[in-house]
Amino acid sequence: MPKALKDITVLDFSHLLQGPFATQLLGDMGANVIKIERPGQGDLFRTMTFKNRWVGGTESPNFLAWNRNKRSLAIDLKAPEAKTILYKIGERADVVVQNFRPGVLDKLGFGYADFRKINPRIIYCSGSGYGDSGPYATRPGQDMLIQGLAGLASATGRGDGAPVPVGAGFADQIGAMNMVYAILSALYWRERSGEGQEIKVDLMSGLLQHQNQEMVWVMNFNENFERPKSSIGHAGMDAPFGVYPTSDGWVTIAMSPYKKLVGVLGKPELLAYDDPKTLFDKRDEIWEKIAAETKKWTTEDLLEAMLKVDIWCGEVKRHLDVIDDPQVKHMGVVTAYEHARAGKVKVIGPVVRLSATPPTIERPAPIVGEHTEEILHEFGVDEKTIADLEARKVIEQAA
After folding, report:
1. Cα separation, 12 vs 230, whole angstroms
2. pLDDT in tens, 140-154
3. What DSSP line would sit under 11-35, residue for residue?
4. CB 125 within 8 Å of CB 138
5. How many other β-carbons are positioned within 10 Å of the β-carbon of residue 230?
6. Which pLDDT score, from 0 to 100, does residue 399 have?
7. Could you tell me which residues come within 8 angstroms of residue 181 by beta carbon, excluding any fewer than 6 positions away?
8. Other CB atoms closer than 10 Å to residue 343's CB: what's the count?
9. For the residues of 91-127, what is the DSSP string, one character each?
């Protein structure tokens, strides 16, 4: 089966989430992704997990999530020989991706200027928390920190409680998507011009962009949103938009005619609130009254009644329930691959549909240094040199 990016080689210095997710997406499309890792430890995400649980007893789910379709080259970037090897790869590479703190790779000799000297067609993409200059440039660019600084956490949750971060690495994943969007644009430009270029993506700008409708309102009216003190689903929305309890779970109700919902609940007295200003000003009070009624219904019965009159609604599910959701099964996004140490690893597979060049999983997430020898042979490093570098711990091969 043809691959859209089969002739593209990516030299991947990235770690944790933002960069690795971006290069995984490129790998899903067929790019040859060479992941550069530290001998011994490898990517920091290999050492991190949730609840101290490890897939197959040894492998981090955090690492497995973002590193399929790559090969691992374990090499000490501070060793003089690393430049010789990585510059040799850089001569043939199309893309370099990195998300070290600004300036770190430049000091080691692996910045954009270094690779551009040996390959003017190189596309060099850097990810950071806040860009490479300014008062925050040296701060840690971690996802939750960005959510707080960019206003997302303060706009999420109930007004009578603390700000709430999103329950996933939202800023990092937006950053990854922006990396891919920029890299593909740069590849297209190179096809037309023959020229490479430098790309810079930062998490804070990306998260602001993805709150654009909220930011446009705030900036143009010079007023902050105030979070509701109920489970209204957005700081700027009126009732009934939100999350409501049932006798056996929770449902969501989005933008829907208030009269229709009142009709389903059989409480005509609630129509007294039915004007736009009241639905916003008294949204917490209205939420409480609606919630008192939805609690009398099972989730299944309430959804059936609301969907029958075209109210926008849905069930609130936990992750294990989502796996068995009929639509999720129909879409086929849950898949698995075999890993040398972890065994069968269940994953969410590629979700972009292309008729001619669909993305696929060809490789599991690699073991540290699993492909060191294979990659070095491809770029002309002989067996004697490989053995010498390994003996001096400049490189590492997987055991």
Report:
1. 45
2. 999 999 999 999 999
3. EE---TTHHHHHHHHHHHTT-EEEE
4. no
5. 21
6. 78
7. none
8. 13
9. HH-SEEEE-SSTTHHHHHT-SHHHHHHH-TT-EEEEE
Q: What is the mean pLDDT of residues 157-164?
A: 94
| Domain segments of the chain as ranges | 9-210+333-396, 242-323
> What CATH class is the domain 9-210+333-396?
alpha beta
Q: How many CA within 13 A on the CB side of residue 246?
A: 19
In the set 43, 94, 114, 172, the catalytic residue is: 172
| Cβ atoms of residues 96 and 123 within 8 Å | yes
The predicted-structure confidence for 188-242, as pLDDT tens digits, reads as follows: 999 999 999 999 999 999 999 999 999 999 999 999 999 999 999 999 999 999 9
Which amino acid is it at 310? D
242-323 matches 9-210+333-396 in CATH topology = no
How far apart CA 55 and CA 342 sit, in angstroms, is: 5
Look up the CATH architecture of domain 242-323: 2-Layer Sandwich (3.30)
Identify the three-state secondary structure at position 176. Answer: helix
172 is catalytic: yes
Q: In angstroms, rounded to a whole number, what is the distance separating the alpha carbons of residues 366 and 189? A: 32
Both tokens of residue 328? 């999720």
Mean pLDDT across the chain? 96
